[in-house]
Amino acid sequence: MIFILGYVEVPEEEKWESPSVINKKPAEAMIAQFSTDTAVDQAMNDLAAYWDGLLSKYQIKSNDDKLNRMVNIWNPYQCMVTFNMSRSASYFESGIGRGMGFRDSNQDLLGFVHQIPERARERILDIAATQFEDGSAYHQYQPLTKKGNNEIGSGFNDDPLWLISGTSAYIKETGDFSILDEQVPFDSNPDNTATLFEHLKRSFYHVVNNLGPHKLPLIGRADWNDCLNLNCFSKEPGESFQTTANIEGRIAESVFIAGLFVFVGPDFVELCLSRGLNEEATEAVKHIDTMRAFTLEHGFEGDWFLRAYDHYGDKIGSKDNEEGQIFIEPQGMCVMARIGVEGGQAEKALRSVEERLDTKYGIVLQQPPYSKYYINLGEISSYPPGYKENAGIFCHNNPWIMIAETVLGHGDRAFDVYSKIAPAYLEDISDIHRTEPYVYSQMIAGKDAVRHGKRRTPG
Predict the structure, then answer these.
(1) Among all residues, which ones are annotated catalytic?
(2) Does any domain span residue 214?
């Protein structure tokens, strides 16, 4: 038996054969392609060849079959699916839904660009077209209309920097510097365009132009952690933490964005130099060096990097906090940016992660978890302890710690972190994880959860 599930788009003027009679010819033509066993077998062979071609672009050979399987097959496969579907392939998505994330899509490029670089190029230009003239961007956009999602809007102040990261990854992979000269609209307006390089410049200076009292980047509505909402102050049930901004302050700052700025900044410098813009490159280096200095001065405390400063200018992710004393994100990103490597702060930060955040199923987002709702922190404190952003284990930011450990030359420790979340290494405890042994999930229940180690939501 041959079972077919498919979809065919019919131009509006061709949708009807006659009044009230649907034009089925395009659908019938599609079905006819798979009308015999031979045709179906050929289609399956073509599909296998297609995936063999994609997955053969990068291969490793080691003595570890599980590592080979993850790196050669399942990780690039999931990167490909994530690139195509972003976060829209969920169990509850319907209609046009939330769209695709500006930040998410740029991050997806990092794992996909070597497979089909021409599609990565197209995606970069689509993403950039949803940026505003001041360098900010829609947090989400609709892939069908290629326009920003007005319901969510902008104000997630890490978003612009990821465009630099995604574009740089594409150029490093392809050598295609011509993409920087492409004319790209602002806010999808074809009458208002600039080169992609100009978009990247505005991304860089959006951070420089939006600094808080400690000369650290303003967080806006949130940064990578969409649930750390320092300007929301929601008191009403049902309000969206991401779209509610009850306080329009310029005080709440993100140490994570500071680390991200220092991490991606050198890529922007190299792009300037590639275009002969030596003075711009020199100016950018000064901003990067200044941010590094302020991050160490105001963003590092004793044994780890702070997470942020809230609307009142109080520290988040500090030993002085009753809950949420240490967070994973700034430790990973700041060390990836090599902040504090020479002075020993980076080593202290990663050892604090190992001592305070690590578990047998991965590194939790923060400790201790929040036990009640904090109006100055937002959604992060609304989840039960050990779940989601309230001390859950995220498969996204654990790799930042892996990379950070390699920056300091700790290869064995990096692999230890990797093997705790890589699905192939968890086959023997599937009864705990409850997820296929080849799929990364968004998060794993943390040590404070009722079911520590249980996974949820394919990532």
Answers:
(1) 226
(2) yes
